[in-house]
Design brief:
This protein is mostly helical and 120 residues long. The chain has helices at 13-27, 33-55, 58-71, 76-89, 92-105, 110-119. It is built from six helices and no strands.
């Protein structure tokens, strides 16, 4: 490095951003980039699952929703989507099973309990 750098030119913009991000993370003011990528991945999986659901490719959609649940076990939307697919298909047994899993993972959502009681 040359000694003739001017004040304020010690870092390029990317280095400075990384340093400030690390400082903010230490203080707990921002989420890490790792968490952001996880959330983006979940959003992408949900979008892709919805795409296949709309095309009528329910098995692919269910597989993708299950990937979301694996990553985010309390994903109410993923459980709701799978239950709705089983309902459309008339597969009451599978719908009951996914509702039981949803109740175990998403204890705050009483809709799953209500729907399961309707099926009994």
């Amino acid at each position: 490095m040359s000694g003739d750098r001017k004040v304020g030119e010690n870092f390029d913009a990317d280095d400075a951003s990384d340093i400030f991000d690390k400082l903010r993370n230490i203080e707990g003011k921002t989420k890490s980039k790792k968490d952001d990528s996880k959330l983006k991945n979940i959003a992408n999986l949900m979008n892709e699952a919805k795409y296949y659901e709309n095309k009528g490719e329910f098995d692919k959609a269910i597989d993708l929703y299950n990937q979301v649940i694996f990553t985010l076990p309390d994903s109410v939307k993923a459980y709701e989507a799978i239950a709705a697919i089983y309902r459309k298909q008339g597969d009451e047994g599978s719908e009951k099973e996914i509702l039981k899993k949803a109740i175990a993972s998403c204890s705050k959502n009483d809709e799953f309990k209500k729907r399961l009681n309707e099926l009994k």
